[in-house]
Design a protein that fits this description.
five-stranded mixed beta sheet; 11 strands; Ig-like domain-containing protein; receptor; T cell receptor; signal
Length: 128
């Protein structure tokens, strides 16, 4: 049995920093059920990158798989997925040792920049 995984470009930027992007170089990936799976993600970031992987089945919302903020570069996620953060290669490839038929979906890699020391403060002014 074969399984088709469709990839699309993804970027999530909660703030308009204009300083981050991700590229998923593979448009379609086909693997046999039970075979290893790798979905590539290359990122660029001017600050400290927070990286995410999501999956989306047809007619459903995004499902969070895993994230990297800091610490251990090998991140374990749900459903047997994992990703390794490689700062010098600017990659965050998603892997699974054995693909299942239920893994057929769209996958999105996302990045969010965080530059330390740039948190702003809210200011409240009276209406008069």
């Amino acid at each position: 049995m074969f399984l088709l995984l469709v990839l699309t470009l993804g970027i999530f930027a909660p703030r308009d920093t204009g300083a981050q992007s991700v590229t998923q170089p593979d448009v379609h990936v086909t693997v046999s059920e039970g075979a290893p799976l790798e979905l590539r993600c290359n990122y660029s970031s001017s600050g400290i990158p927070y990286l995410f992987w999501y999956m989306q089945h047809p007619n459903q919302g995004l499902q969070f798989l895993l994230k990297y903020f800091s610490g251990d570069t090998l991140v374990k996620g749900i459903k047997g997925f994992e990703a390794e953060f490689k700062k010098h290669e600017t990659t965050f490839h998603l892997r699974k040792s054995r693909a299942l038929g239920s893994d057929a979906a769209k996958y999105f890699c996302a990045v969010r920049d965080t530059v330390s020391g740039t948190a702003g403060e809210a200011e409240h002014k009276p209406p008069w």
